[in-house]
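Apologies for my clumsy wording, but could you write out the amino acids of a protein and the tokens describing how it folds?
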Amino acid sequence: MLHIKRLISLVIILMLSSAFTGTVSANNFQNLPKPDWTFSIPDGHEYLSDSNVRITNQTLNFMSMDNQMYIFDKKTGKQLSKTDYTAGSNLFFSFFGTYAQVAQNGNVYILTSIKNSSGVVKQRLTAYNPNGKVLWMKYFDEKVRSISGVSIMPDGNLFVYLETASERVTSYRYNPEGKFLGKNNWNASILYGFVNGLLETINSTSKTSSRMTYFDFKMKQQFQYHFDFKEGMFSGFGPDGLLHFQKNHGNNVISFSAKTTKGKEVWTKKISNVSYYDDMETSMTVKRNVFSNGFTGIQSNGNFFIIDPKGIMQTVPASAKMYQTAPDGTVMLVEDSKISIYQTSASAKTKLKLLHTVNISELKESDPTFVYEGEGIIYVMTDNVQINRFDLNKQP
């Protein structure tokens, strides 16, 4: 009997222990853990942001303000290459996005303008491997009016677009090895290339309206949307497959809304004192391996909000100055002296789960900047010089 009582007591203790540990789910760091690696940029005066950094399966790609592109092995911090990507061009400085793209295998494609021997400005597309080796170059004879860019299509091929006149664009397609795949002439404007899987072209239909036409990577039309400026401002096609809009109502009140590709409103929310929110048109994503659990933003008081694809809204009280989302559905909030990482779900009915908190008060004097990879991996630049990689999955 005594043996049975002891066994029952042990089971109860284990059950209580399991219940207790289930409530303490977050890793709480009183200070930053030891970095996986650090790297010092020789000339300094740099910063990290999600515009001058791209992270692939194997590499961390960083564009510095002195026109150098650094590529690191993201696991070890080993510098794979340092390339003057503006050499011989008229380009002064670039971010990743319109003019520079990184494929998941680490290859980089950069579009620059150069002057030929006759003094004529032409566009040049250069492909680099992670070790900085030039794989191939392509030159274009079109005289660009104002807009040009390179984009990676959902099938992994490249799309180069060159505006030659108002609502006149010439585009070229290449495979990753530089093989020519096709040329198209468009009687429309192209601003961002492929965004969230589709190519968006724009035509002005009147002083108060425009028509957006969307194509897949085979250049086949998928749908059109006729946009009346009375709807507010068009924010773009999102990873949720919805068209997003915003409208300013005055008194610091903005309404955000999402519609189907046929124009049916799915949700709309009025929010006051919004300081930062999603920009669907510049997210430059081509696949579904991006943050797609909702529309996100922060208010001027630092509260983080997320609106799921059905319009259910959730707010997290915070004093966040900035935030970044990640493909695994997690979000990093950066506050004055704390970083918090939350797990979101496909429905905002499920409350955000706090995964990690880190006290970063020790970094206040070093003017830190942050880039969040997802899965608890954070890159921090301190004193505008040193890049540090931290893995918050390690126990404090």
